[in-house]
Write a structure and sequence with these properties.
Belongs to the PhoU family. By secondary structure, the chain is mainly α. About 80% of the residues lie in helices and about 0% in strands. The N and C termini lie far apart (about 40 Å).
Amino acid sequence: MLRTYEEKKVKIQDEILEIGNSVVEALELTLTGLKDEDLSKLKEIDLSVKKISNKSNEIDNLIVTTLALYSPEAKDLRELVSYLKITNELVRAGANTKAFAKIFRKAFSDDLNTKTILEYAIPLQKSATLALQTSMSMLKETNSKHIEEKYQRVIVEESKTDDLYSMIEKNILKLISKNLELSKEYFDVLSALRKLAKTADRAASIANLLLFAEMGGDIEQSK
């Protein structure tokens, strides 16, 4: 029975990773588009929030069935509870990533101060991507020390996205005051970048959940 439970857990982990990796790949593609200043690459993002949501529901059902059949205790129970919450975080991360690509591509143009925007957008994108990559790498990590180290890395990157967003917000508000006719485009750019910062928030939530699964204590959800 133990082996069967472990097989179920591995299947759950693999399917969660499948969702997480699809979002990470989309983030990596958007990062390449920003670095190359080729936003046509943002059109190539094949990320269906509906499919992610459906897959998430399938995983949740598998988790609930596993809980019912095996009645896990202690760490095993914490893991399954964490996975149940992580699927929702990944749906939100996927929705934020797709929204960023769509809104940013439509709003960004040579009429705007592209140099200022990209000066902050690229490092913000890097941190959001690294945060989610690192949080997903915690899923199958078995070394408690490494889990804690990766958790700290995620929190650092998430904090960077908040700082970078605050800085670009100030700069864009200054640009709007000088170019009121472009205010909608600038506000749309800000909205898109806020989606990126929220993706990093979701990564931090996932890292918190996986730390809880390993160490116990209280579940701390990010904003």
